[in-house]
Amino acid sequence: MKKWIIILTLIPIVSFGQESNLGNWFMYLGNKKLNSNWNIHNEVQYRNYNAIGDMEQLLLRTGIGYNLTPNNNNLLLGYGFIRSENYIAPELKAGNNEHRIFQQFITRQSFSRISFQHRYRFEQRFLESDFKMRFRYFLSMNVALTNKTLVPKTLYLSAYNEIFINDRGGLFDRNRIYAGLGYKLTKKINFEIGYMNQLFNQGSRDQINLIGIINF
After folding, report:
1. CATH topology of domain 2-215
2. In the prediction, which pLDDT does 155 show?
3. Which pTM was predicted?
4. Terminal-to-terminal C-alpha distance of the chain
């Protein structure tokens, strides 16, 4: 059985050199179930500063996971390749490549209309001229509004917070907080619109997210 997820995120962001305030993230997430215990995860993210054609980051991830329990607890060992192109001055970018190994644990709980997901991720980051490690904790919540559970034709609230902690230097890397309104159109299609604030050591960034989720 296959479960594929494609997410399209349109994000207004502010950065040196961009021609407009409309950026976008194209995200593909896939999970292939091998059997009742094992699964393979695949992920592609393509992020632009502008609506299209001004790449900020290309991220590729894959990994193999093991279910500790049938649906609620999953361990995963993964690898990621990240190509970043950051503006260091108007009209001037600096590109760098990163190879990343990560381990993560996901656990899920549901209580009536509310469902939670906790994700604990530990990353080993091989940069072009450095090696770093980082810990990430992600907590998300969905609340069904018009039905008791997230069945088709359900309006729901969506929220998450993710904090990033470095192993050295400044321990705090960033924090992402998001709140949105979603609609489960069919068993395979969800739509969300929401607001995300990304807080850094120096400054923050406000973003409006338009998200479509398709399960194949």
Report:
1. Lipocalin (2.40.128)
2. 97
3. 0.85
4. 10
